[in-house]
Amino acid sequence: MTDEPGKDLAPRQPQPPAQPMDPEQLRQFQEFQRFQEYQRYQEATGQAPQAPKQGGKRWWLVVLGSRIFWRALFFLLVVGSALWAYDRFFGVDDPGDVAQNSGGVTGAAQGLSAPAGLQGTVGMFYKHVSFADTTRACTLILRDDTRQKFANAYGASDCADAVTKLKAQVTSVDKYQQVMFPPDMLKTPTSDKVVIDSCVLTVEGGPRLGTFVVEKVNAGWVITGWEPSICG
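RE: above sequence
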């Protein structure tokens, strides 16, 4: 039976091909179906339906894809690195403590922790003299009589006065605070009492400061004896 002429025919649903479709053909077929549904909705309501919202990206993906985020992160890394470098190379010691790499021993017995403590204690003494830090320099010397002996050798009234006078002889603070030890002195000490003669050290930018007797007291190394030395 044939359709009557002029009669409106309802749109037929497109039928999928009899042959199996590959994924791309299936996608095109489904898009065509959605397009027909869109037309029927528009004809029935007189308005177009709102397009379905696409699945939004997760917030952290949006952040990671933002140039502002990466610029801010780069800025923070640069600032953090600059602050670390400044503190590492130009930072000063906190009042009442030995230097930042001193092991944190406070009180009369201040010094670095083993194994490099004994070298560090003498090195810090030179550093404190280079900055005229009378309190920290003299605190590294444990005994009052040793401090006075050190002062007398330089014609000073006390240890602090001696440090001040020695500071006046420093011609380069940068070089003077970088005392170098011979390789055999960089080894782990085999005893708790070591003698360090400034004559065997590499000292530049200021005077050599004699011979130190360095002892391990608790967790730190301190100067327990001192003698003047004459380097050939």
